[in-house]
Amino acid sequence: MTNPGLTPWGGPWIRPAGAKLANELGHQHEILEKLIEGLPAADRLTISCAPEFQNLMAFHWAGYGLKLGYTYRLTELDDSQRIWDEMRENVRRICRKAERLTAVTRERDVSTVIAAMEKTFGRQGMDMSGLFPTLERIDETMGRRNQRAIYAAEDAQGRIHAAVYIAFDDRHSFYLCGGGDPELRNSGAHALTLWHAIKDTAGRSRTFDFEGSMVRNIETFVRGFGPRQVPRYTASRSRTAVKLLEAIGLG
Q1: Which of 135, 82, 86, 113 is nearest to 190 (CA)?
Q2: CATH number at residue 177
Q3: pLDDT recorded at residue 242
Q4: Can you tell me the distance from the alpha carbon of 45 to that of 251, in angstroms, rounded to the nearest whole number?
Q5: Torsion of the alpha carbons at 166, 137, 140 and 145, rounded to the nearest 10
Q6: Is this prediction's pTM over 0.70?
Q7: Does any domain span residue 26?
């Protein structure tokens, strides 16, 4: 039991009781304990929590392991010049280079992103095609609600260098997924598409969330945009047999 595809975190979420902090925490503990009791049996349970939810004490008491992760967020988005100035110089340089080679457009079809992702995963020797139907279902809903934006960098020959998919509401704009052509990656178009997405966020959301990564080279790329590091937590529990399989590399 874990998160659906393209969903880095979910619940729980508890409506604030409006009580004193000591009573509020007790209220959360009580609800979480009931929630945990009601979870179905599974060989492995993984519950990734949104950064806004950090009270996982009840999971700890129930024998779950807690793991720290990070996402990266930009706020105060109405001042794009300040954000640009706080980006690393190499990222700004890459964006300026990409502007000379490509033009960023919006309102593309989701197939543009899928094609870019296929090329990225292909370069890495990975088959992630199982995610694409999920992305299409997300796009069907978010497109109908006018809560998604697709950015693609295209050159004069009509080649798509990179494309990114942004899902948003009035609170957050999430960099949900993206990819690019490995043969054209030196253009820097991936960084440029993200920069356009960040600039547009001020008109629709209060926060731009890169949906973080613990992979070092991805973290290095994201960090170059100058975001704030935000902790998030995951609770997990496995049956003893699964733990043994994991220990010998078979889980």
Answers
A1: 113
A2: 3.40.630.30
A3: 58
A4: 13
A5: -60
A6: yes
A7: yes
Backbone angles phi, psi at 199, to 5 degrees: -60, -35
Dump pLDDT digits (tens) for 12-53.
999 988 889 989 999 999 999 999 999 998 999 999 999 999
Q: Are 180 and 189 in contact (CB under 8 A)?
A: yes
Q: Please tell me the total count of domains within the chain.
A: 2
Q: Which domain holds residue 56?
A: 21-71+232-247
User: What residues contact 248, with CB distance under 8 A and at least 6 apart?
Assistant: none
- Beta-carbon-side half-sphere exposure of residue 125 (alpha carbons within 13 Å): 0
Paired tokens of 33: 């304990």
Give the integer Cα–Cα distance in Å for 35 and 60: 14
Sheet hosting strand 103-105, strand order edge to edge: 44-48, 228-238, 65-74, 207-209, 172-180, 160-168, 148-154, 103-105
DSSP letter for each residue of 27-84: HHHHHHHHHHHTSPP-SEEEEEBPTT----HHHHHTT-EEEEEEEEEE--TT-HHHHH
82 and 200 housed in the same domain: yes
Q: Are strands 44-48 and 172-180 parallel, antiparallel or unpaired?
A: unpaired
Instruction: Identify whether the C-beta of residue 84 lies closer than 8 Å to the C-beta of residue 209.
Output: no
Tokens of 137: 């279902």
> How many alpha carbons fall within 13 Å on the CB side of residue 198?
26
d(CA 165, CA 178): 6
HSE of 132 in the Cβ direction (CA atoms, 13 Å)? 14
Other CB atoms within 10 Å distance of the CB of residue 56: 20
Matching residue, tokens 């629709």:
204
